[in-house]
Amino acid sequence: MEFALPRSPSVALREYVPGNLIYANGNRFVARRFHRDVDEQRIEMPNFEVSTERQAVKETNVGATPSALGSTVLQTIAVCDVDLVHQSHISDEEELRFQMGVAVYGLERDQHNGGKAYAWGTPALHHRRGVRLRLVNVGASGAIERQTRPDRFGYPVCTVCGQSVSPLSSDEQRRKFGENHLERCGRKITPVGFYADVVADALSLPACTDRSTAYSVLEAIRFAATQVLDMHMEDLQVLVVGHVDREDVDALLWDPMPGGSGLLDQLCERFEEVVAAAREVVEKCPSACTSSCVDCLQTFRNAFYHKHLDRKLALQCLDSWGRTLKFDHAIPALHPSQEPSEGRHPVNEKERRLRYLLRAAGFEEVTRASN
Ligand SMILES: [Zn+2]
Ligand SMILES: [Zn+2]
Prior knowledge:
- This protein is of the alpha+beta class.
- It has one domain (9-155, 191-331).
- It is built from 9 helices and 13 strands.
- It has helices spanning 9-15, 40-43, 141-146, 171-185, 211-228, 263-269, 271-283, 311-321, 349-360; strands at 21-24, 27-35, 47-51, 56-60, 72-78, 81-89, 102-108, 115-119, 124-140, 192-208, 237-243, 246-254, 326-331.
- Strands 3, 4, 5, 7, 8, 9, 10, 11, 12 and 13 form a 10-stranded mixed β-sheet that branches.
- Strand 11 (237-243) and strand 12 (246-254) form a beta hairpin.
- It starts with 8 loop residues before the first helix and ends in an 11-residue tail after the last helix.
- One zinc ion is lined by residues 158, 160-161, 163, 181, 184-185.
C-alpha cells in the first residue's frame, strides 16, 4: 500500500534521514531511497565547511581546504522526496518513540524583508520578516560525537541511485554498502549532508557572546511562550547560527509556518508576561538542578544542545535585561542587490568586521558618497 507523508522542508531535514524511525498509521518506517532527480536546482550539491566546535557551516568549494582548524568539508544534497520502507508495527503500549538526534547548523543568506530593532535592556533584539535561512543537517549526533573519523559526518547515501544506510550502522555494514554501490552504480560512497532553504520570520539576538547564553535564553523564552501564548514548542524553532571563523553567535527564534503564524508579533506585544513566565521556568526547577534537566529546559527534541542549556545563566540574563522592549530603529529590507559590488568589498579584516557589526546591529549596507 502506498501513501504520502508530506512534511515541511525543515521537518523533513531532521526526520527524513537515514537511520531515523518515522512513525505513521500505527507503523514504523525508515527512509531508504532518496529521489534527487526532481529538478535542475536540486541536482546541485553545495559543499560546506563544518565546524563542530563552533556548530557552524560556511559554503565553500569542492576540494577547498577548511579555513578553521578541526573543521571538515561536507557535500550536501537538497531535502527531497524519499521512499519510506516499512520496519514494524507499533503496539499501543509503546510510549517511547525513537528519534535519532541530528546536528542541524544554519546560516543566514543575507536577505530579509526588514523589521524592527528593539533594545532589551543592553542587548538588541531584532524582529525581522522573511529571513532567508539555509539549514544544514550535518549528521547524526551519535555518529559525530564519536569524532574518531571525518567520514562520520553526513549520511551514507549513494548519489547515483539514491539508496542509503543508517549512519549508526556498523563499520562492516557501511563497508558492504560502499562496495555494493561502487560495483553497481560506479561511484564511491562519500557521506552527504542534507540542506533546506527556508524563508521565515525571526526574532534574533545578534552577536551573542556565547552559545550557552543563546540557547538558554531562547529556550526559556520558547517554554514561556507555550504558557503565555496559544502554541506548542514546535511552533517556534531555535536556531543558533555559529560562524566557522569567530566565537560569537546569532540566536534566532524562528517561525516555521509558511507566511508566518503571527506568534512572534504576539510574543513582542506580550513581552513582559513572556519574560515573567520565562523567569519562573528557569528559577524554579522542581528538581533544583545545577544547569538544566528534564524538569526545566531539556526536552527530547532539544537533546542536540542539552549541554549548552544553563537555567542559572538564563536567569541572570533575564534579570539584568529586564522585562521591557524599547523600540530602537526600523530595520530596512536587505536584498542581494544591496551587496557591495565587485571591488567595493571590505578591503581588510577590520573593515569586514565593521561591516558585520553594522549589519548585525540592523543598519543598511554603507553606500560610499561620491565626491
Ligand atoms: Zn547506488
Ligand atoms: Zn532542572
